[in-house]
Amino acid sequence: MRSRYSAFAVNDAAYLLRSWHSSTRPAHLDLDPRTRWTGLEIVGTTGGTAFNTDGTVEFIARYTESGHADSLRENSSFVREDGNWVYLSAL
């Protein structure tokens, strides 16, 4: 989750697509360079250890857009695909 947040912060759409599960990955991703990501708070997690094949991350991501501060709260599902943790979907 932290690496995906960092990718959003630096507008790295290629990394975001690579770290997205093949069954839910969009064909392309258009990131708005005017969005400035300003902080990430992990609220809670389930699973996600070396012994798990799935897990969740609940987080709050803070950002500013057009001078207005806002946040996104989401509970995301992650699974292993080809041995790597990838984002599956929002719950």
UniProtKB/TrEMBL annotation:
Gene3D superfamilies: 3.10.450.50. Residues 1-89 form the YchJ-like middle NTF2-like domain. It holds the Pfam family YchJ_M-like. This is YchJ-like middle NTF2-like domain-containing protein. The lineage of its organism: Bacteria, Bacillati, Actinomycetota, Actinomycetes, Catenulisporales.
